[in-house]
Amino acid sequence: MVWVHILPAASYKEVKMVEHNRMKTSEFIIPEIGIAEIDSDHAEIMRLIKSTINANDKTQFFDFVVQALDYIHKHFAAEEAFMESIQYPGRRIHGIEHKSLRDFVKVYLKPTLQEMTNREEIVRECVKAFKFHVVEHDVPLANYILAQGLKFDKDK
Predict the structure, then answer these.
(1) Of 8, 77, 93, 131, which has the fewest beta carbons less than 10 angstroms from its beta carbon?
(2) Residue spans per domain, the chain
(3) How far apart, in whole angstroms, are the C-alpha atoms of residue 56 and residue 37?
(4) Residue 141: which of 100, 86, 99, 96 has the closest Cα?
(5) What is the CATH number of domain 35-147?
(6) CA 70, CA 88: separation in Å to the nearest integer?
(7) 3-state secondary structure the chain
(8) CA-to-CA distance for 34 and 144, rounded, in angstroms?
């Protein structure tokens, strides 16, 4: 059975907009991996990435992208240093994945930075790639950290 909610005085267009906004919001939710510091970083990365969609002009978009890439770079560097410090067995592949993800984002964003076209589609693809990274690489890292009884330390 399908439940239909009747929205008073709402047009079909307004209902579609509500559905679209719900979809957009859920797209920017990254699964938590159980390591508070990493989960917090991931949430901030998503906030920064999402802000690029709402940029008013090319300059603001570029500023948001630079902020997001800078934060991502710092997050990856901290994660890689920590993986090295604990001799995480998957650290080499995880580091390669970080480089691939950075390269993917840069390549994907380059035409958008030049022409300001398809921002939502481009950002959506970047988010998909980041979600894939979290699920395929950060979850195993978190499992290892928890199984070893370690605590993630950004400063290592």
Answers:
(1) 8
(2) 35-147
(3) 31
(4) 86
(5) 1.20.120
(6) 24
(7) CCCCCCCCCCCHHHHHHHHHHHHHHHHCCCCCCCCHHHHHHHHHHHHHHHHHHCCCCHHHHHHHHHHHHHHHHHHHHHHHHHHHHCCCCCHHHHHHHHHHHHHHHHHHHHHHHHHCCCHHHHHHHHHHHHHHHHHHHHHHHHHHHHHCCCCCCCCC
(8) 11
What angle, 0 to 180 degrees and rounded to 10, lies between the N-to-C axes of helices 12-27 and 119-133? Answer: 40
- Best CA proximity match to 52, nearest among 111, 114, 122: 122
Tokens of 153: 């330390």
What pTM was estimated for this model as a whole? 0.76
Cα(132)–Cα(147) distance, integer angstroms: 22
Q: At what angle do helices 91-115 and 119-133 cross, to 10 degrees?
A: 180
Per-residue model confidence as pLDDT tens digits over 21-70: 433 446 667 888 999 999 999 999 988 888 887 777 778 888 888 898 89
